[in-house]
Specification:
The complex is a heterotrimer of chains A (about 325), B (about 160) and C (about 400). With about 325 residues, chain A is mainly alpha-helical. Chain A contains 12 helices and no strands. In chain A, helix 6 packs parallel to helix 12. The longest helix of chain A is centred in the N-terminal third of the chain and has 35 residues. The relative contact order of chain A is 0.14. With about 160 residues, chain B is of the alpha/beta class. Chain B has one domain: NADH:ubiquinone oxidoreductase Nqo5 subunit (Beta Polymerase, domain 2, 2-Layer Sandwich). Chain B has a 5-stranded mixed beta sheet, with helices on one face. Chain B is elongated, with a radius of gyration of 18 Å. Chain C contains 16 helices and 8 strands. In chain C, strand 4 and strand 5 form a beta hairpin. Classes of the chains: A mainly alpha (about 325), B alpha/beta (about 160), C alpha+beta (about 400). Chains in contact: A-C, B-C. The interface between A and C is medium-sized, with 28 and 28 residues.
Chain lengths: ~325, ~160, ~400
């Protein structure tokens, strides 16, 4: 035991990382299946029904196996090093976000005191990966996708960050765990219902801007299949494509989980008498609820054009976020 | 307006055309020198106002090429057919693509498939067939190639009429 | 990158917009050539558009067609007059009833055949029902190109009903080969007309549903209104006909203006674009005109069923085509994708001397450079979708 003592932190980190990886993989497989089923039922059809028996539950497992077993094609004129590196960079970007997600009061990768700041910073890594993928593919459509993604994600970082600052202002801390603990004792203590209407506006702006952050409809222009074929990952196949896919669904969960943490009370139950249900269930449940809304929007709305997307960001979300931040600041000061 | 009135109107403007109404579609035949002037008159005269070129067809007759223009006026709903011909050793017909822009593509098609050249068309390239295709398939003496870029085309045109009736 | 040839495609009325954009943005004007198609999800088949782009702005569009060329006109010269019918079906495979109707009417015009009223009415019913199916595909793929997936699945359900009906009638689901010169392949099965009437009742509430789902969606309007505006002058000079022309506000419908197959007996209203969400003749108008046309088609179908007379559908079918008169005839009909005309020339033998097909979609492709230049890539996708092309008809 004494031998292991100095390495205890490292071992725990590795165990946690493996746990998160497993969670992410299972979540992605589930979410893809869910997306198929949700879209199918929205569209008055059944979706996958055969594989695995009950409602085709193992369809995505079969698909993932197929993707892993497929030949890995790298275009002859591609920049091979960057092409290989890009999916993993995207994946790391979304995986690293999990480090500060508080699944329960004692289940968090690292409760650093700048958790919100960290998560905004680390998820920006995704855009570098996407840019890399689009450039390295040496395909014009991929380049367009990458350029659109870069412009879009960098722009939408700002409303996202400004909206996240509002709960930070109200909590007075950037630590995720403290923010959650401040929202204890029933749903009326959640930040989304505090200081109405400011935090509600912030929540709505955050949710829409985060859709753009993770390239979901109506902001899915970087991979708009009817315009750019598939956007930045048009040349990817097999396992590398699967990694992009995994990262996309991982990102969906991360942005939803952040919203659940800072606005919706994290792992707290909506009523105190429901506290006997463990925190992770509440946390994952709230996040999944938001993921479901994302799916619902995707299968309902058309796609914006690139200039309209920028218009929404710079001329609507940004002024509202700034005004909101100012007013919340005032509110916090006056409340004392 | 009936075809007769239209033809009278054209002749009153100084063109010498005769109407041929043997078939179901009465038509007028003009010389290729007069084609542009006639077409401009048909398009621009306020009483005729043939603003829509419905169809432009190229035909390969044994002695000559023929181009047939089917015109309609969306305002008065009257129609006219104009035919113009050119000799096979001088297969040039003036282009009406400046009068009706749709003629540009139809003329390209007639050039591509029949082999009539249109003088004044800005973009007279092959349109339906590949750029390096040889010959014009709708000419009656056209012999289909047996291969194209090493792709065998042997079945093309091999089975002609089977006795349907 | 390969040097592109200077092709001198004349530019349309919106080019000035691009020039002012370049001036105001201070862009350097460096161009990139982008090949959209022939394998591209938004080109509805195998159209290739060579786009010259400056960033996201398209400065030049050159369409290339012919990837689906079968030389139908050459084939038609080698087969007998009624063997041509299946080939016409394959032109616009989404509305093959309308295609074979055009050909059958042309041959009848040359031979001087007058079909009886039952044949006329059945032709109207099948063509209008096929028009609804074709418009369903248009609206579905249009939504898909704008990014809305769900309307596709809904509209294909509606289309499925029509396809089932036409399958029961003709035996096939896409290329019906039902309308023949001089008549029809056979009479309608028992109870078929009742099913068509049931379909009309089923379809009626679906159109408001579609309007709720897609037509008046804010994002959809933003994407399509004021995009690719076609003025009546541009449309007419490029030979645009059918719904695309009516979307510009030109009141021209061959079914009413030069009636054929007994359309004069039915009461319907050609739908015109009025520029409700933007300018008249924009992409949204081209969309909504077709939605409303579906309602008009339902009206026509109901009237035709109500007044369907008895008669022998095959009494005028020629025994053979040996006595084909020498001469030529041109007949034009209103198909879902604009006017479809056939110009046939007969030299008295049982094979055509020349069959020339004029297709509406062919002209619709040719107008894309004129209305799409100077817009964004996403707008070009919307325009290609909105002019409603089927490459089988373009390439023939």
């Amino acid at each position: 035991m004494n031998v292991l003592e100095p390495y205890m932190d490292l071992i725990l980190s590795v165990v946690y990382l493996v746990g998160v990886l497993m969670f992410l993989t299972i979540f992605a497989l589930l979410a893809v299946w869910l997306e198929r089923k949700v879209s199918a039922h929205l569209q008055d059809r059944l979706g996958p029904m055969m594989t695995g028996g009950w409602h085709g539950w193992s369809q995505t497992i079969a698909d993932a196996l197929k993707l892993i077993l497929k030949e890995d094609i790298i275009p002859a004129v591609a920049d091979r090093k960057l092409f290989r590196l890009a999916p993993y960079l995207v994946f790391i970007g979304s995986l690293a976000g999990f480090a500060v997600l508080p699944f329960a009061h004692n289940l968090i990768g690292s409760d650093i005191n700048i958790g919100v700041y960290y998560v905004i910073a680390i998820t920006s890594l995704v855009v570098i990966g996407i840019l890399m993928a689009g450039w390295a593919s040496n395909n014009k459509w991929a380049l367009y996708g990458a350029m659109r993604a870069a412009a879009q994600m960098v722009s939408y970082e700002i409303p996202v960050a400004l909206s996240l600052l509002i709960p930070v202002l109200m909590a007075g801390t950037m630590s995720m765990q403290t923010i959650v603990q401040n929202q204890a004792g029933g749903f009326w203590n959640w930040y989304v219902f505090q200081s109405i209407p400011f935090s509600l506006v912030a929540f709505v702006i955050y949710f829409w801007a985060s859709l753009a952050e993770v390239n979901r409809t109506p902001f899915d222009i970087p991979e708009a299949e009817s315009e750019l074929v598939a956007g930045f990952h048009v040349e990817y196949s097999g396992m590398r494509f699967a990694v992009f896919f995994l990262a996309e669904y991982g990102n969906m969960f991360v942005v939803s989980a952040i919203a659940a943490t800072v606005f919706l009370g994290g792992w707290h139950a909506p009523f105190t008498f429901l506290d006997f249900i463990p925190g992770p269930i509440w946390f994952i449940g709230k996040s999944m609820g938001l993921v479901l809304v994302q799916l619902w929007l995707r299968w309902t709305l058309p796609r914006l054009r690139v200039d309209q997307l920028m218009h929404v960001c710079w001329k609507i979300f940004l002024p509202f976020s700034f005004a909101n931040l100012l007013l919340v600041g005032l509110w916090v000061v006056l409340k004392g | 307006m009936t075809t007769e009135e239209i033809v009278n109107k054209i002749n009153a403007a100084g063109f010498q055309v005769e109407v041929n109404d043997e078939g179901p579609d009465p038509f007028i035949e003009v010389d290729r020198e007069n084609l542009i002037a006639t077409a401009k008159f048909l398009k621009n005269d306020p009483d005729l106002n043939f603003d829509l070129l419905m169809c432009l067809s190229g035909l390969d007759w044994p002695e000559y090429f023929q181009v047939v223009y089917h015109l309609i006026s969306t305002e008065y709903k009257h129609t006219i057919t104009v035919k113009v011909r050119c000799l096979k050793d001088d297969p040039i017909i003036p282009s009406v693509s400046d009068i009706w822009r749709t003629a540009e593509w139809h003329e390209r098609e007639a050039y591509d498939l029949v082999g009539i050249r249109f003088d004044g068309n800005r973009d007279l390239r092959r349109i339906l067939l590949p750029e390096d295709w040889e010959g014009h398939p709708l000419q009656k003496d056209y012999v289909p190639p047996t291969s194209w870029h090493k792709i065998p085309l042997t079945n093309l045109g091999a089975e002609s009429t089977n006795e349907g009736n | 990158m390969k040097e592109t040839k200077e092709l001198n495609i004349p530019l349309g009325p919106v080019l000035e917009k691009w020039e002012t954009l370049v001036e105001s943005s201070g862009a350097s004007g460096e161009r990139m050539v982008l090949q959209m198609g022939p394998q591209h999800p938004a080109t509805h088949g195998v159209l290739r558009l060579e786009l010259e782009t400056d960033g996201e702005i398209v400065t030049k569009i050159v369409p290339y067609i012919g990837y689906l060329h079968r030389c139908f006109e050459k084939v038609a010269e080698n087969i007998t007059w009624n063997q041509v019918v299946p080939y016409t079906d394959r032109m616009d495979y989404l509305a093959s009833m309308n295609m074979s109707l055009g050909y059958a009417l042309t041959v009848e015009k040359l031979m001087g055949i007058e079909v009886n009223e039952r044949v006329q009415a059945l032709r109207v019913i099948t063509c209008e029902i096929n028009r609804i199916a074709s418009h369903c595909v248009f609206l579905a793929t249009y939504g898909l190109d704008i990014g809305a997936w769900t309307p596709l699945l809904y509209l294909f359900q509606e289309r499925e009903h029509i396809i089932d009906l036409l399958e029961e009638l003709s035996g096939s689901r896409l290329l019906f080969n039902y309308i023949r010169p001089g008549g029809l392949a056979h009479d309608v099965p028992d109870g078929w007309l009742k099913k068509v009437r049931e379909f009309c009742d089923f379809m009626d509430p679906k159109i408001p549903e579609l309007n709720e789902l897609l037509s008046y969606n804010k994002i959809f309007i933003e994407r399509t209104a004021n995009v690719g505006v076609m003025t009546p002058e541009v449309a007419l000079t490029y030979g645009i006909t059918g719904p695309n022309l009516r979307a510009c506000g030109v009141d021209y419908d061959l079914r009413r203006d030069i009636p054929y197959s007994g359309y004069e007996k039915y009461d319907f209203e050609p739908q015109l674009g009025k520029g409700e969400q933007g300018q008249a003749g924009d992409s949204w108008d081209r969309y909504i005109v077709r939605v409303r046309e579906m309602q008009e088609s339902l009206k026509i179908i109901r009237q035709a069923i109500d007044s369907l007379p008895d008669g022998d559908i095959s009494e005028k079918i020629p025994k053979n085509f040996n006595k084909m008169p020498v001469g030529d005839a041109y007949m034009t009909t209103e198909a879902p994708r604009g006017e479809v005309g056939f110009y046939i020339v007969s030299d008295g033998t049982k094979t055509p001397y020349r069959v020339k097909a004029r297709s509406g979609a062919y002209c619709s492709v040719s107008v894309i450079p004129a209305i799409g230049t100077g817009l964004l890539i996403a707008d070009v996708v919307a325009i290609v979708a909105s002019v409603d092309i089927v490459l089988g008809e373009v390439d023939r």
